[in-house]
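[recover] target loaded
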């Protein structure tokens, strides 16, 4: 092996060593320790802990407040899932020769770059029952009878919070879809047009198959984001009233730092990681199965 090849190999190994060490130190080892703690009764302060094996897992499955929190996560999941086709359609529109497309791209992405806590505080005032801007808008439109306790009614609070989440993250998905659409080969699209393909056929048989990796990523991001949502419910409602707007992550953090039960909190963290993977695999199989069935 010549000197240049050796130097290149050493450079590659050194370049890979740093991220691998960081990955092992900050992801792999903490994940292993998290799994170990899920079998203990550690309170977060004691220098020692006892192994209680599967007791935390049994307690987790019999906790009604945790199940309610998980059902609240489902509202975010389905709200964002139903919004994905709209986001994709908007990205297709922006990818066309739309007048003022650059302005629209900037505006849809703007909410994502704003701090999540700031957004949550702003919408807390927007939906406030005392001089809230939303109720004032309804009054101005002669629709005051529609006013509700937007952040304290258990029946609607999660839908209000999911709306805030949609406002913040939908633009991010639009930009991702737009980037993927712009990477589709122009030659293939021009050839399809010459062959007589209409707009729908172009979208269905050219653009969608070409951006499936991005679709998969956004679907995964939807699962991860919906099951790990924290800042919006924490700032706007603190999980209330009661546990009506609590989420799985919010309840896990409360279990650890309020109830000082780090063992049970670790169990919940392990469970959410497993749940994300399981839902993604099932969702992926369903979606790809539907696509393959339509292609036949």
């Amino acid at each position: 092996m010549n000197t240049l090849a050796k130097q290149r190999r050493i450079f590659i190994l050194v370049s890979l060593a740093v991220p691998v060490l960081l990955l092992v130190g900050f992801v792999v080892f903490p994940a292993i320790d998290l799994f170990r703690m899920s079998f203990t009764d550690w309170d977060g302060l004691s220098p020692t802990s006892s192994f209680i094996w599967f007791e935390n897992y049994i307690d987790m499955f019999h906790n009604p407040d945790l199940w309610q929190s998980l059902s609240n996560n489902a509202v975010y999941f389905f709200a964002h899932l139903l919004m994905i086709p709209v986001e994709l359609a908007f990205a297709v529109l922006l990818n066309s020769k739309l007048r003022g497309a650059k302005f629209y791209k900037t505006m849809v992405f703007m909410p994502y770059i704003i701090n999540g806590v700031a957004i949550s505080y702003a919408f807390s005032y927007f939906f406030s029952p005392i001089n809230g801007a939303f109720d004032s808008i309804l009054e101005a439109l002669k629709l005051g009878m529609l006013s509700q306790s937007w952040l304290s009614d258990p029946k609607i609070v999660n839908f209000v919070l999911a709306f805030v989440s949609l406002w913040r993250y939908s633009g991010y998905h639009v930009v991702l879809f737009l980037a993927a659409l712009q990477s589709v080969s122009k030659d293939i699209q021009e050839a399809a047009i010459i062959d007589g393909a209409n707009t729908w056929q172009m979208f269905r048989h050219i653009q969608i198959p070409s951006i499936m990796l991005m679709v998969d990523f956004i679907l995964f991001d939807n699962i991860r984001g919906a099951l790990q949502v924290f800042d919006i419910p924490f700032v706007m409602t603190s999980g209330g009233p009661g546990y009506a707007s609590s989420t799985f992550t919010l309840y896990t953090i409360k279990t650890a730092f309020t109830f000082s039960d780090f063992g049970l909190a670790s169990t919940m963290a392990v469970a959410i990681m497993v749940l994300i993977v399981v839902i993604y695999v099932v969702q992926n199989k369903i979606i790809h199965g539907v696509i393959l069935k339509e292609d036949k």
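[recover] notes: The chain has 13 helices and no strands.
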